[in-house]
Amino acid sequence: MILQPKQAKRFYRLFDTLIVYANDQLHVTDRLLSHYGELDDLEALKVVQALWDGHDNRYVIARFVDENPYRFSRADLKEVARWECGIYDLFNVDRRGRDICFLYSEHAIAVRGLTREIDTMLNQTPSTVETVLLPFENAVVYGMSISEMPIGMGPGILKVIANELDESFAEGRVIRSGADFERRAAELEKAALDREAEHFAYQTELDMNADVQVEGQHRGVLAGLSPEEREAAVQAELDRVGLDSASLVKTVAKSCYTGTPARTLDESFNKLNKPFLQDLAYSFGVRGSVSSMNKAKLIEAVKPHIPTDRGSLLGMVRTSGTSAVRDVAKLVAAGGELRVRDEEVTSHDSVILPMFPLMLTYHRDGVFTTVMPSDVLAKLSDVDWNGQLERAERIDKSLKIVDLLVDLHGIVYLDEVLDELERHLTCDDEFFSVELLPAIVAASGGAAIGCVLDTLGGDPVLVDYGIAQRLDGASGGERDGILFDLLDQQEGKPFRSVSDELVATGSVNAWVMKGSEARALMAYLDEHVPDEADDYFFAEDVTADIIDLSRDFVNPVEALHIIEDYGFMPTEAQLKRLIDLVMNLANAVPKWTNNGWSPMELHEMTGR
Q1: How many of the other CB atoms lie within 10 Å of CB of 246?
Q2: Which residue from 138, 169, 347, 415 puts its CA 20 to 30 A from 44's CA?
């Protein structure tokens, strides 16, 4: 329900005038009025908060009425005087029939919109909003602006709100009229303050005992370390438990071939096993019963499809990334053959792994031998590999930025991608369309870049791999519905660019893990490690899982389930501390619906 136009006009006239007067008295902001003499909503909200958040400044309302600086009628002054009982707070909001209800002190307050229905102004309902409620004529209204908290709600929170609303209606605790609100406002505020005081005392008692160690938990070896010391200790443990030399050689050898190395492309075909040849046949769309073909027939069917010309071979190297270009260049420079003894293998990168038809790697008699077929070598020997490497590094950096951009936003238009790339490196339209776009298309089919190409209203977009999984099997209308819904939630929120810090870190999750909120949770978990958990990785694994879920939003119950799955059963004293830490972390995680900003950052920037 909304006010009648005449009522709304009167409310704005009275309320706007009071806000201007209050700002003159309290000196809250010097940007309250625009160049056109209109109130700036965000600046006005600061004055509203200063005037009604607590009772210290409400004397301004009485002073306004006494002075009557704008020569209001007696009826208008009487209406303004009623606003001393305004209630400023956070409210859970939901619709019940015709009413938009603000929950407060176990009551449902039916609030009217000024010129439009309140729920049409919110991104979602139920929702949590910050505003001031005021009596006006025969209704209850909000003080011009509503600041919606930029967080989602899990099923547990939704159920609590629904139950509270049900109980308020069932027990007759519903306030609909301005007179009823005015009469009961002081009582409701006192009840809210009393419950807040009780809660504070109870939580203080819990806080005093929150770090008590209980049976089944112990202080982990990482407890008390600074972030830098902790990172060094974890790395030292990773090095200690890493694969020994013999195990590493065995692991790498599983990806290689045996026997005498093949020297030509024709000989290389005979080294391929039947499952690999079958996969090639299926990928090339070979006709006939591939599963019933013997190896000779598979080679015969596949061979015509294998690229052997210089351009195709070079294209295959290019699309495989910087490491492949570097490996092929090294192999060409060595004359087509490289050898690594078992004792020289110190990491997985010590050996060049097979990449048919460019090269095959063999393991025999304690030596890894990588061979490029002579006919392939002849076509690639005069390539400018320094130039190819520079190009590949440029594309890899571009793909990394694209990957981070899509991870931040969930969905981005390609023109936004181009704008972002131009911020980090020289990226003209020709480079984008001729070189980078095909690389994006090639990478988008797998986890390398984690996104897929789609179209939305004719405009090409990049979609995060996680969202792409939701689109699988959906029809065109359903697919567009998912994408449009996300874009609608992003609308009006500032676009977030990929920072140099994020590029250096490499991923959104790793970036969040370095933040103070994630470190605070890990520090607490390090102090309370379940006896059966690994001291070095328990806190990190739990925190990483919570960050993953927080991209959409994680409520305390879901987070506690994660923690319990790792074997940590918190006491009541620990529970409060854990919920605080988890919610602080969840509010620090960038969200797709916030256009790449965390709820905390968005609230600080926009006051919404």
Answers
A1: 10
A2: 138
Topology of domain 386-496, CATH: Arc Repressor Mutant, subunit A (1.10.10)
Do 338 and 377 contact (CB within 8 A), yes or no? no
What confidence tens digit (pLDDT) does each residue in 316-371 have? Answer: 888 788 899 999 999 999 999 999 999 999 888 899 999 999 999 999 999 999 99
**Is 261 within 8 Å of 370 (Cβ atoms)?**
no
pTM above 0.70, yes or no: no
3-state secondary structure at position 113: strand
Question: What CA–CA distance (Å, rounded) separates 148 from 151?
Answer: 9
Burial string for 222-234 (b: 16+ CB within 10 Å, else e) reads bbebeeeebeeeb
pLDDT digits (tens, 9 = 90+) for 48-85: 999 999 889 999 999 999 999 999 999 999 999 999 99
Tokens of 78: 């009487």
Strand, coil or helix: 70: coil
174-175/107-110 β-pairing: parallel
Tell me how far apart the alpha carbons of residues 602 and 123 are, in angstroms, rounded to a whole number: 14
Q: Which helix (DSSP H) or strand (DSSP E) does residue 132 occupy? A: strand 127-136
Q: Which of 314, 369, 310 is closest to 341 using CA atoms?
A: 369
* Alpha-carbon 524 to chain mean position: 23
Q: Start-end ranges of CATH 1.10.10 in the chain? A: 386-496
